[in-house]
Amino acid sequence: MSAVRVLLADDEHLIRGALAALLALEDDLEVVAEAATGPEALAMALQHRPDVAVLDLQMPGLDGVAVATSLRTGLPDCKTMIVTSHGLPGHLKRALEAGVRGFVPKTVSAQRLAEIIRTVCAGNRYVDPELAADAIAAGDSPLTAREAEVLELAAHGAPVAEIAERAALSRGTVRNYLSSAASKLGAENRHAAVRLARERGWV
Amino acid sequence: MSAVRVLLADDEHLIRGALAALLALEDDLEVVAEAATGPEALAMALQHRPDVAVLDLQMPGLDGVAVATSLRTGLPDCKTMIVTSHGLPGHLKRALEAGVRGFVPKTVSAQRLAEIIRTVCAGNRYVDPELAADAIAAGDSPLTAREAEVLELAAHGAPVAEIAERAALSRGTVRNYLSSAASKLGAENRHAAVRLARERGWV
DNA sequence: ATCCGCTCATGACATTTGTCATCGGGAGTC
DNA sequence: GACTCCCGATGACAAATGTCATGAGCGGAT
User: Contact A191/A163 with Cβ under 8 angstroms?
Assistant: First the structure.
């Protein structure tokens, strides 16, 4: 059986380079392309048609999940996996919805990552147990679409008037949504609500 | 001349391992110790007495700058440098005050990092030009000690009453400080102020 | 000796937010 | 058809916040 062809996308050159070197030590893995941004990752993937795309979650342009979403239709045979520093529950959820087959934190060893790449390439899934537990504990977002949208706008510290304008809603409506969102999250005010929603990955 | 003895501290195993492997390829560099947390980095440094300590900025326990501060007195001959993903101006400032001799983003290549380690070990300093420019552009904090302290407490979304209690101030005073802080930062309200201060590394 | 800035406080006032009740329209379900 | 849920809105009221003037004590600088 020929080597697994891997695409590596991470904006941190230090990590990407080092990782490429380490994965190259594995006989059955071959890094066929590298990218530093989301759009670049997409382009490289379409050009080199790798078996597995290892994507950093946070990249300039498009994030890892967005790239995975595009690849799902653009290159359906390519398995995607996400590597990330910050393991927020919401990210995992978004990733799984995008058809990502592997989700690991950067705290794993290169050895372990290599194993997981093989696992994913074989058609299986792998999710870091700790992140999975967090995600399950966090549960689903109780927020409605509008509540989340308004909360998102409030995250920048904008006053109600500005949120209302941007969302094309009346001020009263905005306040109602913020109020109900905060109450659903058990927060004392909108800002604590933003913080909580962020932690759980709901915004 | 014998090889430069390097301590590597980063909580992300993937990066630390990969980096150690790459630096080992350089004839004149030798990784003598690795650590995944701040306290561990400190202990390993005192035990192995490296020439250069390469510290990740964000680590559990103690962050890179805190470790550098301790090393300055505990192991004065050890040169320290910081490697980071997020290059906030304030971090650089804090680092330089802590006697750090090198400050680089993780977007550099391993090759480049090796060069910088040599530079630092030779007694010179190195600061990433782009981060330096940002830091200069951001300038010094216009906030007084108390303003910064109160803003810090406000960052968690706490209401004035709670901030007042925690800072042992009257509510009115807290509001005055928040108001003046926001006005100095050109922010419309305390939350936008928190955001701005965060971006510039002033809290 | 004087001035200035930081700290901490109070009071008053306008504005913004949070909360609640209530309404109508639409989409989906049983 | 009745029911429920989400969307969007209004009005009213209480509470929190932002703003300003003003004052006192303190310490450093000229």
Answer: no
